[in-house]
Amino acid sequence: MIKAIHFKNFKALRDTTLPLGRLTLLVGPNGSGKSTALQGVNFWKVSFRNTLSVGVDLATHPEISITVRWGGSNAGMRTIKSTKSLGQNFEVRHFDKRNHQIPPSPPADGLLAIAHGTRVYSLNATALASPVTMVPKIELRAEGHGLAGVLERLRDDAPERFEALNEELGRWLPEFDRVLFDTPEAGKKAIRLRTRQGQHAIPAADISQGTLLALAILTLAYLPDPPPIIGLEEPGRGIHPRLLRDVHDAMYRLAYPESVGERREPVQVVATTHSPYLLDLFRDHPEEIVIADKVEGNVRFTRLIDIPNYQDILADAALGEVWYSGALGGVPGDR
Amino acid sequence: MNVAILSESAADEAAVRLLVEAVLGQPVELVPPRYRARGWGAIPDTIAATVPAVYYSHSGSAEGLVVVLDSNSSPVHTGAVAALCDDVRCRLCMARRAVARAVGKLRAVVHRGPLRTAVGLAVPAIEAWYLCGNDPNVSENAWVQARAEGQRPYPPNQLKERVYGTDRPSLERETACATREAVRIASDLDMLERKFPIGFGALRSALGNWVAPKTDA
């Protein structure tokens, strides 16, 4: 599990550390580096091109770096640095915790899972609804391409999980009762959702954005082998506030499988949101909230529980309301 | 009887429905839509909106509205249960005042009787009610005494852990456990009222007024 990521001159993140737990919900104003931080979670695949922060003097701040510290039995630290050189090319170098340059390949320890297993999703309905060319070991891609293939694999490889997913889908969205599959052309798969009343099979292209996003999150939560680290950009986008409890539960299913009787490794989940309604649901676990603030050109990430007297500030109010008020920070500046 | 319930979650609603059925001694049908409270700051406004919505509703015909909320760490009601107390932070009275205000604004509707209302308050959370009979240390009295000594005898996460087996229950698990426990505690309403004389006592007393007293012909 990643414990923290330090960013230096990486886009809006000049010099800041993002603390992470098993589940982290990141809130803050637009442009406060939440999405950039998710890219950092996927640091192995990050591109340093065009990353220097606006306003950074290249003569005095030539170094861009991301340092990841992970815990567990193979705890360690890895820094990826890049120095801008002529022609907009970036030379990327890897360093260990003693700042010794090392080969860029991930060692066969905790970093290997982080390097190869991290997935960051910014799901969109068009990608989720698109037909899929079937390939072995198909995965859900960053924007949601592949959903039909992933669901079909789930149906074939883990039918009991697929049935459980259908049951849960029916609880989330009672108008539907089952995921069906379609072959729009040879070698391609698409999904349809069957209506409970009338048993009509609705093509994915005609299903609402929120329903498709909910189905994608539900699918991730029911995979027998989910990625070890998942970043979710705005998982509540397009979803009714009352359904956010189900989104919350799906994230907990991933991060705390033992809470639902699952016997698999926990997934580390990092999600961003602007929804006070989603935030409300984390009232009992303030340690899972990180607030992003823009401070004098830099971004600061603060865990809610590290804000002095946060319990007095929260009192018994809804967490989302308190955040909206500005009392916890993480809100846009004055205009 | 057709009833609307304003509660904090679907799980709470399922349990409250069973308790209301037990108190009324008759089946209760929930009239859509399902009403939800979100944060105490908004409760007066939520009640002010819910009361006329239930009364004037064209989608159903609820004869009564039940409001059950958590007290969290707010001061517990003092004095006679049926009377309003002086502490403006008392959530039971805050909710009852909001209900009375909203009911007072309703206009008479032809073929529509007055809206019956009942307010209950779980101290400090509805999970405490679910532990009634299983944990002798959980009661309003224990909570009030501990608070008077500046202590918090059982934080919400601990109550959840004890009821749901985890402090991160899914809604499905919450609903299943809430339903199971509500069935159990509904079988001994007197014990529930002994342990929670204010929050549950107020609910039971108000619901008692819904049923027209039997008179000898």
Question: How are the SSEs placed, and which strands pair?
Answer:
The complex is a heterodimer of chains A (335) and B (217).
Chain A: E1 2-10, E2 13-19, E3 23-27, H1 34-41, E4 63-70, E5 76-84, E6 90-95, E7 101-102, H2 110-117, E8 118-121, H3 125-129, E9 132-133, H4 147-157, H5 159-172, E10 176-182, E11 188-195, E12 201-203, H6 209-222, E13 229-232, H7 244-255, E14 268-273, H8 276-280, E15 289-295, E16 298-303, H9 310-314, H10 319-325
Parallel strand pairs in A: 3-14, 3-15, 8-13, 13-14
Antiparallel strand pairs in A: 1-2, 1-4, 4-5, 5-6, 6-7, 9-11, 10-11, 11-12, 15-16
Helix pairs in contact in A: 4-5, 5-6, 6-7
Chain B: E1 2-7, H1 10-24, E2 29-30, E3 35-36, H2 43-56, E4 64-70, H3 91-104, E5 116-122, H4 126-130, H5 140-148, H6 156-164, H7 171-186, H8 189-195, H9 199-208
Parallel strand pairs in B: 1-2, 1-3, 1-4, 4-5
Given as residue ranges, the uncertain stretches of chain B (5+ residues, pLDDT < 50) are: none
In terms of DSSP E residues, the strand content of chain B is 5-15%
- Helix- and strand-based class of chain B? alpha/beta
Classification by helices and strands of chain A:
alpha+beta
Index terms:
A: 335 residues; alpha+beta; six-stranded antiparallel β-sheet; globular; B: alpha/beta; five-stranded parallel β-sheet; 5 strands
Structure description:
- The complex is a heterodimer of chains A (335) and B (217).
- Helix content of chain A is 27%, strand content 28%.
- Chain A is built from ten helices and 16 strands.
- Chain A has helices spanning 34-41, 110-117, 125-129, 147-157, 159-172, 209-222, 244-255, 276-280, 310-314, 319-325, and strands at 2-10, 13-19, 23-27, 63-70, 76-84, 90-95, 101-102, 118-121, 132-133, 176-182, 188-195, 201-203, 229-232, 268-273, 289-295, 298-303.
- In chain A, the strands form three sheets. Chain A has a six-stranded antiparallel beta sheet, with helices on one face. Chain A has a six-stranded mixed beta sheet with strand order 8-13-14-3-15-16, with helices on both faces. In chain A, strands 9, 10, 11 and 12 form a four-stranded antiparallel beta sheet that branches.
- In chain A, strand 15 and strand 16 form a beta hairpin.
- In chain A, helix 4 crosses helix 5 (159-172).
- With 217 residues, chain B is α/β, with parallel strands linked by helices.
- In chain B, strands 1, 2, 3, 4 and 5 form a five-stranded parallel beta sheet that branches.
- Chain B contains nine helices and five strands.
- Chain B is globular.
- The two termini of chain B are 24 Å apart.
- Helices cover 46% and strands 11% of the residues of chain B.
- In chain B, helix 3 links the parallel strand 4 (64-70) and strand 5 (116-122).
- The chains are: A alpha+beta (335), B alpha/beta (217).
- The A-B interface holds A 168, 171, 242, 245-246, 249, 252-253, 256, 258-260, 277, 280, 284-285, 315-318, 320-321 and B 9, 36, 38-42, 72-74, 156-157, 160, 166-173.
